Amino acid sequence: MNKGYFGKYGGTFIPETLSHACEELDKLYAEIKDTDEFKSELNDIYVNYVGRPSPLYFAESLTEYYGGPKIWFKREDLNHTGAHKINNTVGQALLAKKLGKKRIIAETGAGQHGVATATICAKLNLDCVIYMGQTDIERQELNVFKIKTLGAEVIPVTSGTATLKDALNESIRDWVTNVEDTHYIIGSVTGPHPYPTIVRDFNAISGKELKHQALEQINKLPDMIVACVGGGSNAMGVFHPFIEDKDVALIGVEAGGNSSMDVGGASINDGSQGVLHGAKTKILQTNTGDILETNSISAGLDYPGVGPEHAHLADIKRAEYVKIYDQEALDAFYLVSRKEGIIPALETAHALAYLEKVKTLSTDVNIVVNMSGRGDKDLYSVMNNDK
Ligand SMILES: *Cc1c(COP(=O)(O)O)cnc(C)c1O
């Protein structure tokens, strides 16, 4: 059966005990996703709680500075909690309620997905447990306190490198044990079927809005959409409604890390086929199949895998995936802050840094950068990095 495959990637590589939960989720989602009731419930939260639609903003000063293509930002950074991640957590929390599950678990790296999950759990009165690597807990003190303030429990994970991939493993372990009353909110277009599809669909709100906004504000579709790719949820969300529009170039920007010598987080550029966290995809691994330790200045791009649909889009060349290094992202972080008065997340700064590579394109070209999140969370690490 080909369910949940994108070309040769995807699928469900999980313990037997979880198959039922994934099937149940798949079935419920298929049943309700197009109903007026679910759509209006979700829309109400998007509008009144998340603050959607997010604007399509013309970056006039940055456009002038480069003197080439017109540059636009899709402002996901203006969403409640400061990034695109809330688009998915609100949708999945609604699904959990419909499944009659009262307990939510999630993994988090930098803490952004943990915050977005704890936020909607507070609003919908769901118990919330967040798994986080001990190393990340120490690096992201403020987000840990935010999650606790929102009433969720943070469980430190000390196995492995005590980072995101270890937190993911612990979450899966918890889910196996408590699957009867627990829903696992995965934070990106990764994991077993149906997660890559569900997370994509909830994030596609940004791409759908962008399509309308572009036709109104630019009078045509954009020529190019640029988005950073960690697991790939903000990129897949903004790309997906444009996949059939072959004239729109889709550029996914992976993290190259601190130099061309080290392993960054570029699973498509530097990885090979393997199975990670329940799906077949491109992963960063040794010749013998051990997962490599990734590195990136941005915690959200520091992941050794990528959503299976991205691996497929790369194979069929519908999207192009490029690498941006830490220093290029830092330069873009300051440039956009100073030219536009918008401090971007370091993840987003990778997408923004790509503009340097296309700045000589003609002034008729319209480029949209998906502003996946705001940079408040990163100020501390940039401050320490740049000393
Ligand atoms: C988590 C995060 C990302 C990376 O996740 P994707 O699933 O690849 O979108 C990118 N930008 C921001 C601001 C994030 O918080």
Structural overview:
- The chain is an alpha/beta fold.
- The chain folds into 2 domains: 16-45 and 85-199, Rossmann fold; 51-82 and 204-383, Rossmann fold (3-Layer(aba) Sandwich), CATH 3.40.50.
- It contains 16 helices and 14 strands.
- The strands form 4 sheets. A 6-stranded mixed beta sheet has the order 3-4-14-9-10-13, with helices on both faces. Strands 7-6-5-8 form a 4-stranded parallel beta sheet, with helices on both faces.
- Strand 9, helix 10 and strand 10 form a beta-alpha-beta unit.
- The longest helix has 23 residues, at 195-217.
- The termini are far apart.
- The mean pLDDT is 95.
- Pyridoxal-5'-phosphate (PLP) is lined by residues 83, 85, 112, 188, 228-234, 300-301, 345, 347-348, 372-373.
List keywords for this structure.
387 residues, alpha/beta, Rossmann fold, 2 domains, 6-stranded mixed β-sheet, 16 helices, globular, binds pyridoxal-5'-phosphate
Cα Rg: 19 Å
Question: Helical proportion?
Answer: 40-55%
Number of helices: 16
Strand order, sheet with most strands: 3-4-14-9-10-13
CATH class of the largest domain: Alpha Beta
Distinct ligand kinds: pyridoxal-5'-phosphate
**Average pLDDT for all residues:** 95
User: Structural class of the helices, strands and pairings?
Assistant: alpha/beta
User: pLDDT below 50 for ≥5 consecutive residues: which ranges?
Assistant: none
Q: Would you identify the CATH architecture of the largest domain?
A: 3-Layer(aba) Sandwich
Instruction: Write the element-wise H/E pattern from the N-terminal end onward.
Output: EEHHEHEHEHEHHEHEHEHEHEEHEHHHEH
Q: Report the CATH topology name of the largest domain.
A: Rossmann fold
Count all strands and give the number: 14
Described by its quaternary structure, the protein is: single chain
Q: Total domains, how many?
A: 2
Estimate what percentage of residues fall within beta strands. Answer: 15-25%
Main beta sheet strand tally, sense and closure:
6 strands, mixed
Distance from N terminus to C terminus (CA atoms, Å) equals 54 Å
> What would the principal axes of the Cα set say about the shape?
globular
